[in-house]
Predict the 3D structure of the following.
Amino acid sequence: MEGAKPPCRFSTCNPVIKMLRRKQCDDLLVGLARAAIEALMRSPTPEIDMRRNALDAYIARKTEIDTMLARLAALSDDHFGADPEAITWADVGTLAHYAELLKRITDSAFKEGEHAA
């Protein structure tokens, strides 16, 4: 079959899980957008302008994070561009570095590690 993608040689690939993850993210984003629009439509006071500005900034940052996460997920789905037949310790080191940076973020977000109460 010409042009067909070869089967993944990594055992962690599961297209159903990937599809569900993407669907859940899409559903969450739609829900957040609806809630934000409803909140904006309810209140016409000057206080709301400040909240609206904060909400706009919040949504912009969240969109920025969502974009980064989607790019990381796509890169991960492609095994970070690694060829399973040519993995070296440099590839392992690169992933360890990525994991260390992501752990700092998740520890902060979930109040774990050095951020635990």
Remarks:
- The chain is about 70% helix and 0% strand.
- The helical segments are 15-42, 46-77, 89-109.
- Residues 87-117 form one domain.
